[in-house]
Amino acid sequence: MKKQKKLTKKQLAVLDDLFSSELDEQAVLAKFNVSKNLYYKWLADECFAEQFDRLIAAVYRQSAVLLARYATLAAAKLVQLTDSENQETARKACLDIIAYDGLQARERPKNLTPDPRPPTPDSTLSPETASKILEVLAQEKEESKNQV
After folding, report:
1. C-alpha of 86 from chain center
2. Most buried of 39, 85, 99, 131, CB within 10 angstroms?
3. What are the Cα distances from residue 104, in Å, to 52, 72, 74, 110?
4. Cβ count within 10 A of residue 11
5. How many domains does the chain have?
6. Which of 107, 119, 102 is nearest to 61 (CA)?
7. Are 97 and 64 members of one domain?
């Protein structure tokens, strides 16, 4: 078994600041007095690059969890916006709902069992929401005809 090379305290501190501070990459390097050339050597080092990639993956996982946590709230708000007094806001909300395709298969966690039932129109939108969407789209089509 090959012995794993350890990162130096300076490398660990740079990685920590890159992912947890408000500083950008250049500011972090300046803070630790690390030249671009040295930083590029670190990035070429397998051990440093693996740790860097693990940290990037962790940040993306955290983002996915945050988005998943608030997806229901965002969807409910979008549906509420279809009843907006402002026609443009309602129209855009309707278009966003129509364009939304939910959790894509490639993004679905592999351990979720797919629903064996085929999707039905009323399983995703209430009749009132679907009616409102169609009404807004019909108005938009009528307006575009009148402009020609």
Report:
1. 28
2. 39
3. 27, 15, 17, 12
4. 20
5. 2
6. 107
7. no
- What does the pLDDT profile of the chain (148 residues) look like in tens digits? 455 579 999 999 999 999 999 999 999 999 999 999 999 999 999 999 999 999 999 999 999 999 889 888 888 898 898 888 888 888 888 888 888 776 554 455 555 555 555 555 545 667 777 777 878 877 777 777 777 6
The answer to the question of residue 77 being in a domain is no
Sorted by sequence, the CB contacts under 8 Å of residue 60 that are 6+ apart come out as: none
Task: List phi, psi (to 5°) of 82.
Answer: -65, -20
pTM above 0.85, yes or no: no
87 and 142 together in one domain: yes
